[in-house]
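Hi there,

I know you've been waiting on this one. I reran it after we fixed the sequence typo, so this is the corrected version. Both the input and the resulting structure follow.
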Amino acid sequence: LYRGIRSQIESLLTGVSASDMAAMELGLSHSLSRYKLKFSPDKIDTMIVQAISLLDDLDKELNTYAMRVKEWYGWHFPEMAKIINDNQAYSKLIKKAGFRNNIGATDLSEILPEELEAEVKEAAEISMGTEISDEDLLNITALCDQVISITEYRAQLYEYLKNRMFAIAPSLTALVGELVGARLIAHAGSLMTLAKYPASTIQILGAEKALFRALKTKHDTPKYGLIYHASLVGQAGPKAKGKIARLTATKAAIAVRVDALGDTDTAEVGIEGRVKIENRLRQLEGRFAAKAARADRSKVPATPLDKKFERMQVASYNTASDAVVAKAEKPAVVQASNDNKRKASDDEEDDVSDASSDEEDKKKAKKDKKDKKEKSEKKDKTEKKEKKEKSKDKDEKKAKKEKKDKKSKD
C-alpha cells in the first residue's frame, strides 16, 4: 500500500511542483527518522559537556588570578584580605580606590555593606603594609580587570548551562541539580550513554580510582562519586550518607532514562523522586536520633523513679537488738575455764572430721585404681581374642591355598 502511494504520489497530489515535492519528501523522511531514533535537535547534550568543562576551567583560572591579586596587593594592604572574602568585591575595591590612602575618602557603598566598609576604612588608616608605585598599581588593576571579567562570564555561562539542563534533562536537574547532572552527563559522554548505566554505576561515577584501589587491596569500595555533591546527599548525616547516595542514584537512573527516551519535557519524575528521598531521609534521621537518645539515656545515672523497681538487699537479723533478762554474771575464772573447754572440744571435733575425710579420700582412690585395672584387663582380653581369631583365619586361608596348589600340580 505504502509503496503504491509513494509511486503514484505525483498523480495524487496535483498542483505541486517537482522541487516542492522533493523538499516535502526530504522533510518527511527526516522527521520520521528523528521520531524512530527519539532524537530532537533541541536536545544536544554536547553543549552541556563543553559548558561544564569550560566552567571547571574558569573556576581554576579564577582562583589562580584571585590568589595572585591578594598576594600582590597584600604587600600594600594585608589586612583587607582578612576582611573581604569575595574575590570580585576585592578586585572592584582595588580598581575603584587604588592606593590604601584613598580608601577613606572613597564611597564603597556599591561594593560593600556598611559594616564591612567601615571596617575596611579603619584598617586602612592603621595598616602596616609597604608603599607601592604607580606602575605596580597599574599592573594590579589590570589583573583585577581580568578577575572581574572572568567572574561575570562565569555567571553568564552558569545561567546558560542551567537553561540547557532544564531543556535537555529536566527530571535529572530537579533531582540532583544542574551542576551535578551536567557533570554526570559529561563523565558518561552523553545523555544516552548515562541512561544505559545501572544505578550502581551512577552511584560511584567519578570515583573509579578509589574503586579499583579498593578492589585491588580488598578494602571496602566507595559509597559515592560525583553524586556526593548533590544537595540531598549533603543534607544527610554521616551515618545516612551511604543509604541516601544509593537511593539518589536509583532515582537518578530512572530520571535519566525518562529524559533520554521519554516524550514528555516535564520534571515530574525528578520531583517525585526528590520527595521520596526527602521522606526517607527524615525517617533515617529520626531513627538515628532515637538510637542516640537511647544511648545517652543508658549513660545517665538512675533516678529515684528508676530505682523504685530494683530489688533491695534484705537486711540480716541483728541479735544484739533483742531485749532479754540479763543473767547473773559468772566469776571471771569460771568463765575462762568454760571458754578453754569449748575451744578444746572444737579442736577435737575438727580433728575427727579431718580424719574421716582423709579415710574417705583413700577409699575413693583405691576404688578408682581397681576400676582402672579391671578396664585394662578387659581390654587386654578382648585384644588377645581378636588376635587369635585373626591368626586362625590366616592359617585356614593358607591351608586352603596349599590344598588348591597341590590339586593343581597333581
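Quick highlight: Residues 97 and 106 are 6 Å apart (CA to CA).

Best,
R. S.
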